[in-house]
Design brief:
Layout (H helix, E strand, L loop, with lengths): L1 E7 L10 H6 L2 E7 L2 E7 L4 E7 L1 E5 L2 E5 L11 E8 L6 E9 L5 H8 L4 E7 L10 E2 L5 E6 L3
Parallel strand pairs: 1-9, 8-10
Antiparallel strand pairs: 1-4, 2-3, 2-7, 5-6, 7-8, 9-11
Length: 150
């Protein structure tokens, strides 16, 4: 199954409340593959886009997902967007956002699993406190859609 995560409204953009401190700390956000955070995007960029391939299978009348991008136990699977400081040259994680597969409408997940389009999640990456969005990100803070495969 093809998944694309599109984030905008990054907390390091000009004029954001914590922008200067985040930029000085070299804060970046990436998607977590197993224990490693990859495809890092600087906190001051206009947007972040991650393209993932996720395994899927039918379990009873539900779709279960797996693979190196997927975390959690069956029935509670999710993707991590991880925030970390890189000012020392090493990614030092300090927050994560959880994108739950259980929050995706079942018909969208089933259609994406059948290969009939890419599952796209769009979210703002600045949290209510003006810093990096973290914790569980639920609709309406994330919008899931199905789009034609490119």
């Amino acid at each position: 199954m093809r998944i694309r995560i599109e984030g905008d409204d990054l907390p390091g953009r000009a004029g954001a409340p914590q922008a200067e401190a985040l930029r000085l700390g070299g804060v970046q956000v990436g998607v977590q593959r197993r224990k490693e955070v990859v495809d890092l995007v600087a906190v001051h960029e206009d947007r972040a886009v991650w393209e993932l391939e996720v395994d899927s299978r039918e379990v009873g009348d539900l779709i279960d997902v797996g693979g190196p991008w997927v975390h959690g136990r069956p029935g509670a699977r999710f993707l991590y967007l991880s925030w970390g400081a890189t000012d020392t040259g090493v990614f030092a994680g300090f927050r994560r956002a959880k994108l739950m597969f259980g929050d995706i409408p079942g018909d969208l997940l089933r259609t994406a699993a059948a290969g009939d389009g890419a599952l796209v999640g769009r979210l703002g990456l600045t949290g209510p406190d003006g810093g990096p969005r973290c914790a569980r990100v639920r609709p309406p803070d994330i919008l899931w859609t199905l789009e034609p495969l490119a």
